[in-house]
# Entry
Amino acid sequence: MWITDITLLILFILSFFQMNIIIEVSRQVLQTFLITIFPSLFFMLVLCKLLLQSGMLQRVLQRSSLHYALYLYALLGIIIGFAGNALLLKDAYHHDQITSREVQIITLCCCIPSFPFCIFTLGSLLGDMRYGVLLYATQCIFACVMLSFYIPSTKLSLKENTALSLQEALQSSGNGLYMMLGYILLVSVMLALVTPLLPQYLQEILFYIGEFASASIKTVTSSNTLSTKLYTLSIILGFGSLNAHLQIYAITPVVPKYSTFLLYRILQMLFSISILYLFLKLLH
# Structure
């Protein structure tokens, strides 16, 4: 505990001498978040909340063999991605709609970016949205494969949910995204203060594992070959970034050990690279 206190104290002292860095990093983070993440994530979060409260998704799944809460929130996690699903899991757990074990399973298996970011943002920057679909598909396949090893326990409830107004959905989603932005700013500023103290090769590694959106955009706009960009993006999206990890662990009510979570992310990186390699071989 004292190590954490000393680290925070050092960062606090450094901030007085690096105020220009803090201002510049905050500006870049706000610009990236508001342009590439916030619009699609806010829309998806509001839509998912309204669909959950209406019971529409539950009724669709109940007509199949996937009539379990595990599959419902795993599906939402695959769609909305990262910390957005953590907000939904938090609400579901507090309303006893899902067990702590199932929350941990989804946290381990469904740590993937949202499809609007992969397909529309990265796809458009790569010049072909099919590449965005390809990157997103590799992450989804990993989630589906890992979920197949777990047996769900909580069936979806048939009872009607309490109506949620559009205003309430907008407000709760906005509050959640505001909290997420706070974590993004915190980690980004901390990395900006610590990075100059490290060797050059560690600075590069820390940048790519620190915040996935900035690292992804830098990769896409680099002068590397297309295949190099795709493999690098697959690694970045598979790992998810330290920033996303912090958000997930801060928001999710019941989380697995971080060592276990980190092992899953390493497996996801290796798996997504392998699947991407197979896809590229088939396409060419």
Remarks:
- The chain has one domain: 38-156+167-283.
- The radius of gyration is 19 Å.
- Residues 19-54 form the longest helix (36 residues).
- Residues 134 and 276 are 7 Å apart (CA to CA).
